[in-house]
Amino acid sequence: MSNAESDSEADQATGKRRAFLDMLLKTTDEDGNSLNHKDIQEEVDTFMFEGHDTTAASMNWTLYLLGSHPEEQRKVQQELQEVFGSSDRPVGADDLRRLRYLECVIKESLRLFPAVPLFARRICEDCHINGFKVPKGINAIIIPYALHRDPRYFPDPEEFRPERFLPDNSIGRHPFAFIPFSAGLRNCIGQRFALMEEKVVLAWVLRNFSVEACQKREDLRPLGELILRPENGIWIKLEKKTH
Fold it and tell me: What is the pLDDT of residue 60?
């Protein structure tokens, strides 16, 4: 998609931000062809609807992990207190930017339990990896669930440590060591939207409730289906906070 970037720069010059649908209507490929109505419908459907199950699954895992780690939950609630105080106002755009530790928690949850545990790609050209030739035209299976547990990039990979994703701790990490939304030109179109959704919903839950996990980690038995789910569901206890 070639025209979207230059149009975006033009919008920045005028101080306007184009709506998602406007961007799709004005986007062209490298040959100057616009998206047809079917292409636009598929992109909008992907953005608005196909992320529901994955986002819901991600929030379930995050609540379970926070319910299993009281200290990390305390840090999230402390951050929420600093941002919102005793107010019950809804989450705004400025708040989302300030919820940095909550974002680290979400990313660490996605590292341990990526909503999509594997995906496939077709190799478009011959390449060599560690001395092995990977020929053009074959299909490759990428498994984020395993990739995210590489101890070279994530020491003690089974431990829940949101601080891994603080800026200072991310320096030098390979950009493809963490790919819960895939990577490159075919990455998830709705990843920023999904992170915003998770922040808004989790912020509301954790401003109003304390979470306690009712299962041990070894009892979850994640199933590597289209969406990563525990075999017997996730059970948590919510206790209303007194302000």
Answer: 96
